[in-house]
Amino acid sequence: MKTYTYPQSQTLFKRAAAVIPCGIPGHMSPAANVPVSDYPFFAAHADGAKFWDVDGNEFIDYMCAYGPMILGYNNPVVNKAALNQLEQSDCVMGASPRMVELAEFLVDLVPAADWAFFAKNGGDVTNYSVMIARAATGRKKITMIAGGYHGVAPWMQAPGHAGLIEEDYRNIIRLKWNDFAGFERAVAEHPGQIAGFIATPYHVPAFYDSELPEKGYWQKVEALCRKEGIVLIIDDIRHGFRLDMGGSNEYFGFKPDLICFCKALANGFTISALVGSDALKNDAARVFYTGSYWYQAMPMAAALACLSELKRIDGPKLMLDAGERLLNGLTESARSHGYDLKVSGLPSLPYLRITNDESLMLHQDWCGECTKRGAFFTSHHNWFLSTAHTDDDIAKTIEIADDAFAAIKAKYGDRYSTR
Ligand SMILES: Cc1ncc(COP(=O)(O)O)c(C=O)c1O
């Protein structure tokens, strides 16, 4: 099978590095994808479940722009709604009726929502959720999960990162995922001081296996929050609309006070949302929170089209089923080459890891070998399925994976393989 090279990507990256800190900063940075020589750096165009890089290489995309792409790139229904809106109004002096329609839509769709508020990035709404929890309770402390990610505001970042000061996380209590007893202890040690508990619906730490909630975990957390007056916040930015259209808490059977959505909300158009319960509506109104582009009408029209389409086709089921077919094929291919490919999380946003080498080097190599054959896999982060991944895409991906397993076997011989 032919493997790709990336001369144009590399030339462009040199130009980027001269004028942009890090060249490509953040999660799209080449440093995120190792071995660096196996990955493209710049995308040229995209359609359905595929994108093409600046060298003309074609990839079936299992990162979906880190989650926003859910109905396929260039989705005609969403794009048409967005472009129609753009012709009427986008960022103008006055909010658009789309804002009201989208809030009504979310209140209908999401059982825990009595109201909705819109911003741009995920971090805008996780930050807002914590401010509301503090305004509502008059308390300072926030409990979150060690290894959880909620964005880049100082309180969300792990201690030790550049630019943070100790005061930024003085009121943050980090708990272990699935450790309800640890949450009980934190409540006992800080009586009447905890404003909010924030976590993703299940744990998705980078470089580690994903972890589902243990039976009863969420129900116990919810009950303790109610008893102690702690605001329960679900960060559904990554999982949202890939497990359940009503919010991922519905999948796990509990009711939070606030839910943060972003990423898949508008198939890549720029919008995030916080939804919440009636009890917190006045507190949400009291918190000063706004941004230059937060009333943009085009992403709101895109979100209305995206959510309607996902609901119409039962998007979460399609992605869970397609993910299952993909993962069965990949694990079977691994086994036939003597490797154990461990899958964790749920099939619409799975995390994979070859367990034969604990250092993850072998797994990184295999992901790189797949990518330079046209199946874009990262090794450190969960992947994402979309409703645009077809059976043909999945069959081709399994063929690519098979060839990549043969390539790492040729490279390492019997060192890791059990066959
Ligand atoms: C679970 C979770 N929360 C919050 C964020 C932050 O979103 P944004 O980067 O749009 O601010 C992310 C982004 O990856 C995320 O995965």
List the helices and strands and how they pair.
Elements: H1 7-19, E1 43-47, E2 50-53, E3 58-61, H2 76-88, H3 97-109, E4 115-119, H4 122-137, E5 141-145, E6 172-175, H5 180-189, E7 194-199, H6 217-228, E8 231-235, H7 248-252, E9 258-261, E10 272-276, H8 281-286, H9 297-313, H10 315-336, E11 341-344, E12 351-354, H11 361-371, E13 375-376, H12 391-412
Parallel strand pairs: 3-13, 5-6, 5-7, 7-8, 8-9
Antiparallel strand pairs: 1-2, 2-3, 4-10, 9-10, 11-12
Helix pairs in contact: 2-9, 3-9, 5-6, 10-12, 11-12
Pyridoxal-5'-phosphate is lined by residues 66, 121-123, 126, 149-151, 200, 235, 237-238, 262.
Explain this structure to me?
With 419 residues, the protein is α/β, with parallel strands linked by helices. It folds into two domains: 7-62 and 315-412, Aspartate Aminotransferase, domain 1 (Alpha-Beta Complex), CATH 3.90.1150.10; 76-313, Aspartate Aminotransferase, domain 2 (3-Layer(aba) Sandwich). The protein has helices at residues 7-19, 76-88, 97-109, 122-137, 180-189, 217-228, 248-252, 281-286, 297-313, 315-336, 361-371, 391-412, and strands at 43-47, 50-53, 58-61, 115-119, 141-145, 172-175, 194-199, 231-235, 258-261, 272-276, 341-344, 351-354, 375-376. Strands 4-10-9-8-7-5-6 form a seven-stranded mixed beta sheet, sandwiched between helices. Strands 1-2-3-13 form a four-stranded mixed beta sheet. The chain has a two-stranded antiparallel sheet with strand order 11-12. Helix 2 packs antiparallel against helix 9 (297-313) and helix 3 packs parallel to helix 9. The longest helix has 22 residues, at 315-336. The chain is globular and about 60 Å long. The structure holds pyridoxal-5'-phosphate. Residues 66, 121-123, 126, 149-151, 200, 235, 237-238, 262 line the site of pyridoxal-5'-phosphate.
